[in-house]
Amino acid sequence: PVTFLRSDYKEPAFTIKSVDLDIALIPARTIVVNRMMMQRSAGSQNQPLVLHGEEQELVSVRVNGEIIREYELTPQSLTLHNLPDNFELSITSANAPEKNTTLMGLYVSNGNFFTQCEAEGFRRITYFLDRPDVMATYQVTLRALKNDFPVLLSNGNLIKQEELGNGWHSAVWQDPFPKPSYLFALVAGKLQAIQRTIKSQSGKEKLLQVWVESKDLDKTEHAMDSLIASIKWDEERFGLELDLDRFMIVAVGDFNMGAMENKGLNIFNTKFVLAKPETASDVDYGNVESVVAHEYFHNWTGNRVTCRDWFQLSLKEGLTVFRDQEFSADQMGSESGRAVKRIEDVRVLRQVQFPEDAGPMAHPIRPDSYQEINNFYTVTVYEKGSEVVRMQQTLLGREGFRKGMDLYFKRHDGQAVTCDDFVAAMADANQKDLTQFKRWYSQAGTPRVKVEESFVSGTYQVTLTQSCPATPGQDKKEPFHIPLLYRLIGDSASSEQLFELTESSQTITVPGLSKKPVLSINRNFSAPVVLDFEQPESELLILLKEDDDAFNRWEAAQKLFMRSILNGKALDAELVSALRAILRDAALDPAFKDLLFTLPAESYLYEQVSVIDPQAIHQARRQVRGQLATALQDDWLWAYQEHQTPGSYKPDAKSAGKRSLKNLALNMLADSGYTKTDDIAFAQYQSANNMTDQYGALAVLVNFSLSHAQACLSNFHEQFKSDALVIDKWFALQATRQIDLQDTSAVLTNVLALRKHPDFNIKNPNRARSLIHAFCMNNPGAFHQPSAETYQFWAEHVIELNHINPQVAARLARALDRWKQFAPNYQVHMKSALEFISKQMNLSSDVAEVIQKALN
Ligand code: DPP
Ligand code: ZN
Question: Where is the Peptidase M1 alanyl aminopeptidase C-terminal domain (predicted)?
Answer without folding.
Answer: 538-856
